[in-house]
Predict the 3D structure of the following.
Amino acid sequence: MSEEERARAYLLRLLKHRPRSRYEALTRLQQRGFAQEIIESVLEQASRAGILDDAKFAQLWVEDRLSRRPRSRRALERELRAKGVAPELIGRALAHAELDEEALVKQLIAERLPRLRSLDAATRVRRLVGFLRRRGFSGHIIRRALRDAK
């Protein structure tokens, strides 16, 4: 098996687990020690074949995050930037996702509140705020949603 075939097989194994951005694939192939010319060739082939597409990756990432572990727009942007997705593709993916942060915060509060009922009010609020801040939501949106939740 040639070096290029090994690189292609490794990339396909990576993509079986989950979609990847071009940058993630590049990094993983470099970590495996493949030559730069081979990496570029394999990535180009994968892009032409449509199995390595940053626009599709960004859209899938946003959809998955919003359905499984909701985050703020700002947190989603940060995650996608860290994965090497171009800013215009990030903007497009976020525009396609109907992201109403206030409604999302209210939904997260409603889901989380029953677990915190046994706590006193101050502790409950502190934990909710911490949880929502870690998800990237602004203090302004959190305060307004908490006020409405009471």
